[in-house]
Write a structure and sequence with these properties.
Layout (H helix, E strand, L loop, with lengths): L38 E2 L2 E2 L6 H14 L5 H10 L10
Antiparallel strand pairs: 1-2
Helix pairs in contact: 1-2
Length: 89
């Protein structure tokens, strides 16, 4: 059985806030690990994206769409390296 995560293991978004409930696996089932903005059909939407690019994207979305203060955006970007996609294997 696959572990269910509270947040996307790529961008950090809470999975309960994903309008689609999460990304999709290659067989069409719901991903319990990644959101629909990062993962569809069993693959990352932007597989070439680097951690630094993801941190910049998260900061931009939280600033422009969510109106988060800088300290909270910094904390969100700082935790990204601990997520499954970005952990050094």
């Amino acid at each position: 059985m696959q572990k269910a995560y509270q947040q996307c293991q790529s961008c950090g978004m809470p999975l309960k806030k994903d309008k689609k409930g999460g990304g999709s696996e290659s067989d069409g089932t719901l991903s319990l690990k990644y959101c629909s903005s990062c993962y569809q059909g069993g693959a990352f939407i932007k597989p070439e994206m680097t951690l630094a690019e993801m941190q910049s994207l998260v900061d931009r979305v939280l600033k422009n769409e969510m109106k988060w203060w800088k300290i909270f955006r910094w904390l969100a970007a700082k935790q990204l390296p601990t997520l499954e996609r970005w952990k050094i294997k």
